[in-house]
Amino acid sequence: MIVGVLGAGQLARMIALAGLPLGLDFIFLDPSVDACANRLGEALIGDYNDPELLAQLAERADVVTYEFENVPAEVAEFLASHTQVYPSPKALAVAQDRLIEKSFFRDLDIPTPDYAAVDSLENLQQAMSTLGYPAILKSCTQGYDGKGQSLLKSVDDLTSAWELLQGVPAVVEAFVPFNREVSIIAVRSVSGETVFYPLSENLHRGGILRVSECRADDAMQQQAEAYVSRLLEALDYVGVLALELFEVDGKLLVNEFAPRVHNSGHWTIEGAETSQFENHLRAILGLPLGSTAPVGKAAMVNFIGGLPETEELLTIPHAHLHLYDKAPRKGRKVAHATVRTDNRQQLSKSVKQLSTLADQVDDS
Predict the structure, then answer these.
(1) pLDDT at residue 178, as a whole number
(2) Any alpha helices (H) in 120-209, and if so which ranges?
(3) Is 114-174 a CATH 3.40.50.2000 domain?
(4) What DSSP string runs through 276-343?
(5) Is the four-CA dihedral 261, 263, 264, 268 of positive or negative sign?
(6) Comparing C-alpha atoms, which of 226, 179, 219 is closest to residue 199?
(7) Model-level pTM?
(8) Which CATH class is domain 180-361?
(9) Can you list the residues of the chain whose pLDDT is less than 70?
(10) What is the CATH number of domain 2-85?
(11) Is the peptide bond between 111 and the residue preceding it cis, with omega within 30 degrees of 0?
């Protein structure tokens, strides 16, 4: 069985690492000859919309998936007319535009922060008279890891924030005074079988995820599952989906969803019976889904921009290091480490040690 993957970054790499023990082969399409997943399968190097490469991928892959949601929608639609593509192009299209996404949530009675669509500085000024400060201005498309976003603290920020977006359509969201940020990883198979991982509690800085911790038996689990279930059913979704949420006074507001395996689920590699990556492959291939039960207590720490010495990281109790084979670069995710232990105090201690080392090399 051959799995095609659009993108050959670290998420594609981890998908392949989960699939090789299952006897799967992989073909990656990515513009970069140095993409870190390339050594784990056949590499097609070129633009995502290269007709010759797409024809090769469609002909040879039994199923195609993708590792990030900025794949051109027309590429997914072309491939879907020739082979199986999961998640579907519809899910991709919804996730690619923040305004469409938020309208989709509202249609499903899934609560979101207050927002307004803006396409000019005048529209932004009008919207702020209703939303109030602070607020966050985001481009409708091509935004991830804090890119294409500006915090609006006062009227003095409006002009510069709008100019930074260079006139692209945008959405402005009321700032949410959240108690914490959480996410839920859900998996739905081609058969409709659905499973959920325990909530992840997440810490972001500069719009980039820094730490995720598994929260088994969280009081918000049922509410999060209800929201993500509506999304899965409405999209007739297949594969892993991550839903990011804010907890505000015992209630959840949805921020956004990612139609793919997700950074906040990396702890599942060591911390769950079946990782998100293996379950994604099981889902898109129609195989029985694996258990999402946690194994002990687990968390994940990201390394952004640079790496501490491997030996120093591996001296930390219960740490498992995952290097992405990517050159250090400002703001770039180059590795993560998970911690799994039966002792919550030890988990907290090891996560703190890893975070301290991560901060020392972080140039984001």
Answers:
(1) 94
(2) 121-131, 158-165
(3) no
(4) HHHHHHHHHTTPPPPP--B-SEEEEEEEES----HHHHHTSTTEEEEE------TT-EEEEEEEEES-
(5) positive
(6) 219
(7) 0.94
(8) alpha beta
(9) 142-147, 364
(10) 3.40.50.20
(11) no
